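yo

u said u wanted the structure for the complex thing, so here. seqs first:
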Amino acid sequence: MERDAAETLCSVGIDVGTTTTQVVVSDLTLQTPAVDGAASVEVLDRTVHYRSPIRETPYADASTIDTDEVLAFVDRELRKAGRSPADIDTGAVIATGAAAKTRNAEPLVDRLAERSGEFVVATAGAAYEAVLAGRGAGAVTRSQSEGTTVATVDIGGGTTNVAVFVDGTARQTRCIDVGGRDVQFDRTGTVASVADSVRDHYAAAGALSDGAADSPATHRRLASWQADRILDCVEGPPFDPTTEALAIGPLPSWAPEIDEVRFTGGVGRLVADGESVDRDPYAFDDLGVRLAAALRDHPRFDTLPVRESATDIRATVVGVGTHTTTFSGRTIAVDASVLPVRDLPVVAVGGLDAAESAAAIQQRTAQAIETARDGDAADEFALCFPSIGPLTYDRVSVVAEGIAAAYAAAVGEDCPLVALTGQNCAKVLGQTLAAADGSRPTIVVDELELDGAQYVDLGAPVANGTAVPATLKTLVFDE
Amino acid sequence: MTTNDNAPSDDAGGVERPTNARRLERLTESHPSRIGVGRAGPRPRTQTLLEFRADHGEARDAVTTHVDDNLVNRLDLVAVRSRATSKEEFLADPDRGRDVSDETVERLREGCAEKPEVQIVVSDGLSSTAVEANVPELLPALLDGLDARGLDVGTPVFVEYGRVDVMDAVGEALDAECCVNLIGERPGLATNESLSAYFVYGPERGKSTAKKSVISNIHRSGLPPVEAGAEIAAVLEEIHEAERSGVDRGER
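structre next:
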């Protein structure tokens, strides 16, 4: 039984974006309830205690990030925050936008995660970023406390990521290849580079060929085309075919009624505070200022219920630093010797409700194991069970029998069994699995939001061993 | 806030023309309390009143009915009674529900293993319904969990008209190291099926409540009974190893 005491974890967030790289260091205060049973470990307070300056993402060449420069920056900022990697308990690194597509993004993110603290995880993916930026901008709390639907529109250098929160939960993401860095200029105002997305989908892209002389009218027209795409992305469906062509991942098929819109990200900040009107349009050597102005001047902009966000340009890094770590339910079954586990692919065992016999459950589990190993034969994966059916003793026994049989037949006996459940049944399922196969290290973690997770990281238990930190995430570098 | 979802909705319960039907619906769905039920003039609507009285009736039944003998037999529980001889006496005289007679002590010693590390007690308490709804799922998971931990478990006992502290009297009679009492909670209008598990290390009559631990809210919409069984086994192991329960374990 846990004391009602608060436990504090130090969390780092590192965002390597198309244009900028940032670090935040935060303290997460955990509340562990005094009574056993149903209650869960909750993050009571998230305090950002250090924000790094926002620096340009250093590139060695157009498709390579300057790794040494990024590592040196992060080290320096952690020192300035008064923390060493040994002090950092948790957190995440994210590569976003065009930075995620660079050749060395994946090893860089892994290396940053590895060296920045005890349980710092590597993440990438536009939809995941959209949700983190929304969380960082306070959309969860806002939509929950007001019972409203809040859309966050994070406009960065390479991408625009929209997340829609209904009553505290992210329900939709909409991501498109539109950003402030779609065109870059050199110091003389000459076009230095044009993004493929513009070349491929903007009809008048021909006027923007590299080395072309500065023509404000041409740039304004492109910015206004970009603004059209962004507003269409926020307001749809239905979506314009061009917006669909620019989409990263699927766009939603239904349109919720949005009560509140918040603009975040480097360009989003310019939209929100109205500075864009007075700025030098080429202040950042890209289209960002013009894009922000085009959005504000757009005839449909005034129909949006826009509200300012306190975190603006830092929304993603704050989300990464304070909202990637969640906590399992308090009834877990863990063989702590296996923890932490990193980057385990998550495969759902679906349709278990309909599988009555242990044999049918074994078959479905075996299928999922096969899917999990597709491509590489590793035994490191996690199975996720959104529902195992009614939570009765007999049902749990049958399910455990089927799962254990599938593992015995297909997975080496030293390999851990890692299961995530949507229902509150980790302890009893873990206990029953251990009885069926006593030698295999077994981890069952419950009450996690499993939607859309591709990978999971699980840390060493916290709160006196009653819960584990978990990050359910995506790792997509080549969208 | 948008204004175009203000149309009256049947789904919003009894509230006519709510200012914001969607928010009202979210509120009423987020909680089992009787909110958003509307009114007829100054009084509750007929439907609301009938539901309230039906739930109240079920709550009263949970207190006044008896745990089915067949269930007690099926679960292999040794059945005894507290010092109360009827529901009325049990409700009117709480002390009787906390103790057992000398004859019952004899019966326990004849029918049960003595000096167990863990003694399981099931009591009707204030909800026989809770015992019937939860113990059949909870008990086998609890026994599995205790077995896996190698704890020596005594003969499970059912105490009719039992209160929380009756585990002190039973544990004392059998010289148990620790006791758990699975007992029906005072029913409310949201559920009459809620069960609690109380723990004590070194049971003896008169042991203070501060020395006891609890897991509450065990029912299908709270902590599922089968998961509670596994959790209770883990807590019993902790108590066994720490040789203490309640505030002595640092609980508040």
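The mean pLDDT of chain A is 87. Chain A has 14 helices and 21 strands.
cya
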